[in-house]
Amino acid sequence: xxxxxxxxxxxxxxxxxxxxxxxxxxxxxxxxxxxxxxxxxxxxxxxxxxxxxxxxxxxxxxxxxx
Length: 66
Prior knowledge:
Helix content is 91%, strand content 0%. With 66 residues, it is mainly α.
């Protein structure tokens, strides 16, 4: 069990050091990451809404025929 704790700590330190070298934690990088995530979320929401609306239009078109 203590070996597992050391492995987890080692993984955390490796990732923290890599993040430090890559510049994570800087405000510009964080803001761009937030912007990209927000844009991706909005794009997924838009596509899901469009898909839902197309399904409703198709359903209404079939309902008129029935």
